[in-house]
Write a structure and sequence with these properties.
By secondary structure, this protein is an alpha/beta fold. The protein is built from 8 helices and 5 strands, in the order βααβαβαβααβαα. It is globular and about 70 Å long. The relative contact order is 0.15.
């Protein structure tokens, strides 16, 4: 099977990232604006926490001594915490200090020169988990067969969102504050979260719209070279094709014009 010929944006996360492929999801919108320039790869794993996603990331980035001329991952978004914040005895729970340590490991796997998977061409963004609604999630849990207890708390998830900000500041990477963006748009009222959350945890179309907007703002602000309007298509637009010798004008180009 032929390899992709375009450099990539990789989205690493849990079910909220996985759901980014839903109609009007943030991953779908990213794929649209970067169409023909960068491929969007969704590695959202439903139910995963930071402990379980580390081996996945390690297999997504080749070791330095195993690299070929394959395309590079130009942007890595890391969006976990909703499951880590689950309460015991839920097996997805990761203690807050361990969560911070796992975030450091994920970032340093890609950004540290000492890492065998160091990727200097990759930019990293950390996303905070969104706020959750205990009322909505409790209703969802009660409807399961057999019924389940409420296993997530608003204030606990908030603490995990704050941990993302702390780790981002510590490591010098940029953060996309999904928590604050959605909470403020809900006027800081739990009952208003229903516009952005489908079940108290996962996002609606409006929730993903917020994520896409603030993610694109972060990209264009912190990594202006990745603004999709500044990239060129990997293969020429049709009006640039040489009719007499199409093959010569249809060679793969670097989207960044390098």
């Amino acid at each position: 099977m032929a390899a992709t010929v375009q450099d990539m944006i990789m989205l690493l996360g849990d079910s909220i990232t996985q759901g980014g492929w839903e109609p009007h999801g943030f991953a779908q919108q990213l794929a649209y604006v970067y169409n023909r320039k960068l491929d969007v790869i969704n590695r959202g794993m439903s139910g995963y926490n930071t402990e379980w996603i580390i081996p996945v990331l390690e297999q997504c980035f080749a070791k330095k001594n195993e690299r070929t001329n394959l395309p590079n991952i130009r942007l890595l978004t890391i969006w976990l915490g909703a499951n880590d914040a689950a309460q015991l005895p839920t097996r997805q729970h990761v203690p807050l200090d361990k969560y911070r340590a796992n975030l450091r490991t994920l970032v340093r796997t890609v950004t540290s020169p000492d890492s065998p998977r160091y990727s200097p061409e990759a930019r990293v963004l950390l996303l905070t988990p969104p706020p959750m609604s205990e009322t909505m999630w409790a209703r969802r849990q009660a409807a399961k067969v057999p019924p389940r207890m409420l296993d997530r708390k608003f204030d606990v998830t908030k603490a995990y969102a704050e941990a993302v900000r702390e780790v981002a500041g510590e490591l010098g990477v940029h953060v996309v504050d999904v928590w604050t963006a959605i909470w403020e748009r809900a006027d800081e009222k739990e009952e208003r979260l229903a516009e952005y959350l489908s079940d108290g945890l996962h996002l609606t179309e409006n929730g993903y719209k917020v994520v896409f907007e603030i993610l694109m703002k972060a990209i264009t602000t912190h990594f202006p070279e990745m603004d999709p309007d500044k990239l060129q298509p990997v293969f020429s637009y049709f009006d640039q094709i040489d009719d007499d010798d199409p093959r010569s004008s249809l060679q793969r180009r670097d989207a960044f014009g390098i």
